[in-house]
Amino acid sequence: MAGCCGGDKKQDVRDKVREGYGRIAVGGGGCCGPKKAAGGGSCCGASRPDELAKRLGYSEGDLAALPDGANLGLSCGNPAAVAALKPGETVLDLGSGGGFDVFVCAQKVGPKGRAIGVDMTPEMLSKARRNAAAFAERTGLANVEFRLGEIEHLPVADASVDVIVSNCVVNLSPDKPQVWREMARVLRPGGRVAVSDLALLKPLPEAVLESVNALVGCVAGAVLVEETGRMAREAGLADVVLTPKAGLVETMIETNDPLYREVLKTLPAGAKVGDYVVSLEVSARKPR
Questions:
Q1: Which domains, and CATH codes, for the chain?
Q2: What is the pLDDT averaged over residues 172-186?
Q3: Which residues does 59 contact at the CB level (< 8 Å), separation at least 6?
Q4: Per-residue pLDDT tens for 136-160?
Q5: Residue 181 to residues 159, 185, 237, 256: CA-CA distances in angstroms?
Q6: SS (H, E, C) the chain
Q7: Model pTM greater than 0.90?
Q8: Which positions ≥6 away from 96 have C-beta within 8 Å?
């Protein structure tokens, strides 16, 4: 899926993702239909989101200032920690959803910094903007902003941000090379990328690739680890470091993410999701 799809196919993928995450945003169910009465949760997110966040390395302080509902349990890493944010920096979150990582980053860059989220789903944008008001009331920070747009065509000026983060979103794009080119465009010289995403250790079975639910949950859109690095370098980024995080996929299963349980059903007998999919930290820099 790195660059194999025609225009109509790419738009079909975007429409399915937008529809699935729109349902998550309004709380009417997950990406595979109505919310199950027993246990709650959606098929695209852990039903115990705070537990998942803590296992991914988010601190109690990170979570304490979050508005209710900002953490939708859709994370597969902790890009804000990888980014090593500094006070006063401008940070951009690709696929910001309800604002979870934007609010975490906003606390780290402080009142002289800025945290901007971009999301293509109007329902998510509305949720994030409502959450922003609650965040400002809790923290006294008015340094967040949410913009409607696609991560392949960012509504952000050239060379205007210090750091880009993204959490389990790049896999949703049907045109990943373009996403990496956009990252390089909007970063200032010397700017940094910190992406947490899912990547493949080996190709997935065809049954998983054909599942819309798996697509909306990031799995079917994943590419091989080495392909991720190639796309980042071809976009003009340097110092690309790929760090697979063994065990985090099992953590997402343990925190009751039904998506991964569904994927498990389609795998060969005896196989585990972790045999195919790994949480991957990607760090890179735009040359000066």
A1: 7-285 (3.40.50.150)
A2: 95
A3: none
A4: 999 999 999 999 999 999 999 999 9
A5: 12, 6, 9, 35
A6: CCCCCCHHHHHHHHHHHHHHHHHHHHCCEECCEECCCCCCCCCCCCCCHHHHHHHCCCCHHHHHCCCCCCCCCCCCCCHHHHHCCCCCCEEEEECCCCCHHHHHHHHHHCCCCEEEEEECCHHHHHHHHHHHHHHHHHHCCCCEEEEECECCECCCCCCCEEEEEEECCHHHCCCHHHHHHHHHHHEEEEEEEEEEEEEECCCCCHHHHCCHHHHHCCCCCCCEHHHHHHHHHHCCCEEEEEEEECCHHHHHHHCCCHHHHHHHHHCCCCCCHHHCEEEEEEEEECCC
A7: no
A8: 102, 117, 118, 119, 124, 128, 146
Place of tokens 């660059």: 3
List the structure tokens of 246. Answer: 């063994």
